[in-house]
Design brief:
Blueprint: H1 3-8, H2 10-14, E1 23-24, E2 43-49, H3 56-67, E3 73-79, H4 83-93, E4 99-103, H5 112-117, H6 137-140, E5 141-142, E6 145-146, E7 149-150, E8 153-161, H7 162-167, H8 177-189, E9 193-195, H9 202-218, H10 224-229, H11 239-253, H12 266-275, E10 278-284, H13 287-294, E11 300-303, E12 316-320, E13 322-326, H14 333-344, H15 351-356, H16 378-382, E14 386-387, H17 397-412, H18 417-429
Parallel strand pairs: 1-3, 2-3, 2-4, 9-10, 12-14
Antiparallel strand pairs: 4-13, 5-6, 7-13, 8-10, 8-11, 8-12
Helix pairs in contact: 9-11, 9-17, 11-18, 17-18
C-alpha cells in the first residue's frame, strides 16, 4: 500500500459499526482460558481507552475476526489514566488478558522493560524484529529477548482544531512563544481556550510537559537522557528542564488552558475539542482521526509546539509507543500468538497505523504527508527533527509520575519549579 493511500483510509476504518461480533468483558481477563470464552480459538485483549469513541484496538480485533470467523476476541478496555496500575494488578493476580497493550521502553508502569523484568511477559519470536524501527530495539527487548511488538510510530504534539481557531480569529498557529501567548488572549476573547488540559490525569499532564521539553531540552541536547544516566547532568541543574516547567506554568498563568484545567479529566479534552470550545491539546496526534470521526464538522490537524524564539529549533516527539505483548501466564498462547503473527506479517505490519492514524513503523523519511493531518509538521518528520518520548528510557515509572504530579502541583500552586526538578532527580536515583 502506498503511503498516500495509507493515510486516506484512516477515517473510514475508525467508523466501523460498534455492533460487530465482539465479546465485551469487564475488568476480569480471560487468562484462565475458560471454555465459555470460546475455547482454544479464543483469547482476550486489554488496552487503554480515554473516551467512548471506538478504539483502534477494537477495530483491529474486528478485522481479525472478520478474517478468522472461528476466533472470538474478548476485549477488556481499561481507563487510560489508571491503565498501568490496573494492568500490573491484574498480572499479579493472575487474571490479566492474554494479549496486552504495552508501551515501549521503561518509563511507565505499562512499559515493556519493567514488566519483562518482573517475568510478566512471554518472549516473542525473532520474526518480530522485522517490525521494530531501527534504533528502537532497546525499547522492546531485555537481554536480547523481544517482549513487545511495535504497532506504529506515534507523533506527539498538538491536535489543533482549525475550525475553532478560525472562529477565534486565528488563521495560522504560533511559531514563537510570544505569538502563542497572544493567541491565548485572542482565543479567550472569543470565549474559547487555546489549549484544553486533562490536568488531573497523569498521562496528559506528563505528556504536556514532555512535548514542551522536546523543544526546550532535546532540540539542543538530544542525548540528555543518556547524560542523566551517566550522571553528567541533573534535572535541577538543567536550564532546559527549568524552562520547560516555567513554560507550562506561564501557559496556565496566561489563561491558555480552559478554566478548571487542573482538575479536569479526559472527558474535558473530547468534549472541548469536538464542540469547538477549545482549540488544541497536547497528546498523540493519532487521536485526531478519532476526533474527526466524532465531529466531522470540525477539522483536526497536527501542529508542533513552538520554540521560545524564532531563532530556536522546533522539535517534535515521535517514537514507537503502542505495542502488543503476550501475558506469560496466558492459557491461550497459541491463539494469542496467531494474532500477533498476523499483525507482524509483512502484509499486515502497517495495519494498526492504518486504523489508528499512527505513522508506519518504517520509512518515515520517504512518506508523502502533504495531504494528511501531518502536513504542517511534515518537514519536521521528514528531517528527523524529533526525539523519542522523554520517558521512553527513563529508569523507572516514578520519574514520569513525578513529572506529571509536578505539573499538577504547578497548576494548583502547591509546587514550585525548583521543587519539581528536585523530585525528578529523587525519583530518578531511587
Amino acid at each position: 500500500m502506498a503511503p498516500q493511500r495509507r493515510f486516506t483510509r484512516i477515517a473510514g476504518l475508525l467508523v466501523l459499526p460498534a455492533t460487530a461480533s465482539l465479546v465485551l468483558a469487564g475488568c476480569s481477563g480471560s487468562g484462565s482460558g475458560d471454555a465459555s470464552q470460546g475455547g482454544s480459538n479464543s483469547f482476550s485483549l486489554t488496552y487503554a481507552t480515554s473516551n467512548n469513541i471506538e478504539s483502534p484496538f477494537e477495530a483491529l480485533a474486528k478485522k481479525y475476526m472478520e478474517a478468522n470467523p472461528d476466533v472470538t476476541i474478548t476485549l477488556n478496555p481499561q481507563p487510560n489514566d489508571t491503565y498501568g496500575d490496573t494492568l500490573r494488578t491484574q498480572l499479579q493476580a493472575g487474571n490479566a488478558s492474554d494479549v496486552l497493550e504495552t508501551e515501549a521502553g521503561s518509563g511507565q508502569t505499562r512499559s515493556i522493560i519493567p514488566l519483562a523484568r518482573a517475568n510478566f511477559l512471554e518472549p516473542l519470536p525473532e520474526s518480530v524484529k522485522d517490525v521494530i524501527p531501527a534504533g528502537s530495539e532497546n525499547l522492546v527487548t531485555l537481554d536480547g529477548t523481544i517482549y513487545g511488538q511495535p504497532l506504529g510510530i506515534s507523533y506527539a504534539g498538538l491536535i489543533y482544531n482549525e475550525v475553532a481557531a478560525t472562529a477565534a480569529g486565528i488563521t495560522s498557529f504560533a511559531t514563537t512563544e510570544n505569538e502563542l501567548i497572544t493567541q491565548c488572549q485572542e482565543a479567550s476573547a472569543a470565549g474559547k481556550s487555546l489549549f484544553v488540559l486533562a490536568g488531573a490525569t497523569v498521562p496528559n499532564a506528563g505528556i504536556t510537559a514532555s512535548i514542551v521539553a522536546a523543544t526546550r531540552v532535546y532540540a539542543e541536547t538530544p542525548d540528555w537522557n543518556q547524560q542523566r544516566l551517566d550522571g553528567e547532568v541533573t534535572f535541577a541543574d538543567s536550564a532546559g528542564w527549568k524552562d520547560t516547567l516555567e513554560t507550562v506554568k506561564k501557559l496556565y498563568d496566561e489563561g491558555c488552558f480552559q478554566a478548571g484545567a487542573e482538575g479536569a479529566g479526559f472527558d474535558a479534552i473530547t468534549n472541548g475539542l469536538t464542540s469547538g470550545t477549545n482549540i488544541s491539546f497536547f497528546g498523540p496526534v493519532s487521536n485526531a482521526a478519532q476526533l474527526q470521526s466524532a465531529a466531522p464538522e470540525q477539522k483536526f490537524v497536527a501542529q508542533a509546539f513552538p520554540p521560545a524564539t524564532a531563532g530556536d529549533k522546533s522539535f517534535g516527539v515521535a517514537s514507537p509507543t503502542y505495542s502488543l505483548s503476550l501475558n506469560a501466564a496466558s492459557a491461550n498462547k497459541d491463539a494469542a500468538n496467531a494474532f500477533l503473527d498476523w499483525v507482524a506479517a509483512p502484509e499486515q505490519a502497517n495495519l494498526f497505523a492504518d486504523v489508528s492514524g499512527l505513522l508506519p513503523v518504517s520509512g518515515l523519511s520517504s512518506l508523502d504527508l502533504s495531504s494528511t493531518i501531518y502536513a504542517d509538521v511534515a518537514d519536521q518528520i521528514e528531517n528527523g527533527d524529533y526525539t523519542p518520548l522523554a520517558n521512553s528510557d527513563w529508569p523507572n515509572a516514578s520519574v514520569y509520575d513525578a513529572l506529571a504530579t509536578g505539573v499538577q502541583g504547578l497548576l494548583t500552586g502547591q509546587s514550585t519549579v525548583e521543587s519539581v526538578l528536585a523530585s525528578l532527580d529523587t525519583a530518578w536515583d531511587q
